[in-house]
Amino acid sequence: MKVYLDTSVIISLADSLDVFHTQSLTFVNSLAKRDIECKVGSPLLVELGGIFKVRGAARCFEVTSTLDRFGIELEVIDMKEVWQLSQLYLDEHALTARHRLDMLHYAAASLIHCTHLAS
Hints:
Oligomer: single chain
Shape: globular
Distance between the termini: 17 Å
Strand order of the largest sheet: 3-2-1-4
Helix content: 55-70%
Radius of gyration: 14 Å
Number of strands: 4
Structural class: alpha/beta
């Protein structure tokens, strides 16, 4: 089993003051106890650009160091493939264009063969 963690979960893990920190911590620790792989994909890198712009380099470092701290593996995937698959999801009305970033995560999770997605 492989679980894809959306950026919101990573951000919650990184910030002890986040409203979902405790729930995210409990969830990720329970996965680790069961030897379930935790993954994140290239869309996280896209979102880090926005985080850097708004919150700065220190916040980006907190977020990326969280991956190491919790053993979350970053799978770098060609964003062209991710974009194309997310467009198919959009064409099939899985979500609306307003949720494009979510669809990028769904596509990345599919491309790295995750069985579940947590957001």
